[in-house]
User: What shape does this take?
Amino acid sequence: MDTVFHPLADLFAQLGLPSSADEIDAFIAQHAPLSSDIALADAPFWSEAQAGFIRESLEMDADWAEAVDHLDARLRNAG
Assistant: This one.
């Protein structure tokens, strides 16, 4: 089975967010740290479509799951 690696910048672009390294860092600084009792897809800063994409990516273990996990880790460990 072939898997596709999606960098964090591609995930941000897929979510319709600014995707340069500085813009990603600014997003994480603005929204971190994310509490451990909130699932990433349930965070209040996502639109309904963004939350659905994140949830589906994780539930289906899609190609995007690794990038979503990376974003989750950065949001929880920043600060």
User: Anything to note?
Assistant: The chain has a mean pLDDT of 93.
